[in-house]
Amino acid sequence: MAPQVLIVGAGVTGSMLAMLAKDMGLSVRVLEKSRGAGGRMATHTFRRGDRSSPVLAHADLGAQYVTTRSSPEHPFLGPLYKRLTDAGVLIPFTGEVAGANPYGGAGPEVRHFAAPMGMRSIAEYFLQSSSVPIDWGVAVEDLSPSDSGVAVSAQVPETLSEEAATANVVVLTQPVQQVLGATKFLWLYFFYNMYKKMNRILFLS
C-alpha cells in the first residue's frame, strides 16, 4: 500500500519527521540514498578489523553538538529533548565551545548537548522509535505529482520498492542546493513548474 507520507532523506530532519508523522497515525515510509541514517550529521566509526569488530571510537564529520534556546518546559521541544536524554542519546554538555559559537556558553537560556554515540545516533533513534519502513540505497531522480498523488522514480529503478513508488505527499529533506541544483536558472525553472504542485511536494531542510 502506498504511504500517506513519503520522506526523502534519513537525516535528523527526515527521521524526526517520520517519528512525528507516525505518532500522528499517518502511514510513513523513508527513502535514503546512502546505507545509513544521519545525513549531514554523519558519524565515522573506528574499528580494529572488519565491520563485525567492536567499535573503538566515534568521530562526527558534521555537527559535533546540539544547541537549543528552548526551556525544558517548552510544550514540544521540552519533551523531545527529555526523550533523547532519558534514552542516553544526548547528554548535557556544559564545557566551553571552542571556535565560532553564536550561542555563547551553556546557561539558563542556552543548553548544549553532546551525543556519546555520535550525532548520527539522533537520527537512528528517531527511526528506531518510529519503526517506519526505510528503503536504503535509493536515490530519487524524479517526482511526478497528480491529483491522485505523487509518482516517484529512482536513478536505479530496481532499488525502488513497489510500496515507495507512489505516495499522497512527498517531503524532501535534503539541503536546498542538493534538491534544486546550483544554478540560478534551475531555481527559476523549478519554482515555475512546481508552483501549482506544492500541496503534494513539501520542502523541509
Kindly summarize this structure in a few lines.
The chain has 5 helices and 13 strands. By secondary structure, the chain is of the alpha/beta class.
Q: Taking Cα atoms only, what radius of gyration do you get, to the nearest Å?
A: 19 Å
Catalogue the unreliable spans. Answer: none
pLDDT average, as an integer?
Answer: 84
Q: Give the CA-based shape.
A: globular
Number of helical stretches of at least 4 residues: 5
Kindly state the percentage of residues in helix: 10-25%
The profile of the biggest β sheet is:
5 strands, parallel
The end-to-end distance, rounded to whole angstroms, is: 27 Å
Structural category: alpha/beta
Classify the beta-strand content into a percent band: 25-35%
- Order of helical and strand elements: EHEEEEHEEHEEEEEHHE
For the secondary structure, the number of strands is 13
Please give the order of strands in the largest beta sheet: 8-2-1-12-13
Describe it.
With 205 residues, the chain is α/β, with parallel strands linked by helices. It has five helices and 13 strands. Strand 1, helix 1 (12-23) and strand 2 (28-32) form a beta-alpha-beta unit. Helix 1 runs parallel beside helix 3.
